[in-house]
Amino acid sequence: MPRFARDEAALRGVLFGIKLVACPHCRRCGALIGHGFLRGYAECGSERVVRGRRFFCSDRYLGEGCGHTFSVTLITVLAGFVVRTLTLLCFAQAVLAGLTRRAAWLGAARGAFSLSSAYRLWRRLQAAQSELRARLSRESPAPACAAREPLAQLFGHFAAVPRGSDDADVLAAFQAHTQRGLFDTKRV
User: Residue 186's CB: how many other CB atoms inside 10 A?
Assistant: First the structure.
């Protein structure tokens, strides 16, 4: 069962084949049903956008499911944040290019988010760095990098992970390839 989908069309594709998929909790086939969309705020503006889809393992009406739900989200979604992966990527690249975190955030987020969001994301990225390196090493060997900054080496390694040729967002491509969230530290 995928945890991430490329776009809303891929989410519909998951929904159409859901009866043939085993529940990730109880491993029963045929009990899963669509349970609505995950909606959240857009990065710019106050409209609500689709961030993913929920599924329910039905235990209603003598069903044999377990009653648990799970989600399939879009690859550009960072769990727990309104900010998308491309904004985080632009922010980190600007900081690595020499800008202050404040200036980099104002350029990447275009004034849509508070500065505290930038610092919170930066701390989360720093804290997840060793786990991300371990996950990246399982996918591909670390490329040679002349940069001395550990975060620059990490983003160089992100670029070395296999992905589609049209993916400019290496963080979203990494989530799609590994089927795990960027800041997901739970062992699978």
Answer: 7
Same domain, yes or no: 64 and 26 = yes
Q: Are residues 45 and 116 in the same domain?
A: no
How much is the pLDDT for 163? 65
Answering whether pTM is above 0.85, one says no
Q: Which residues form the domain of 18?
A: 4-74
Number of domains in the chain: 2
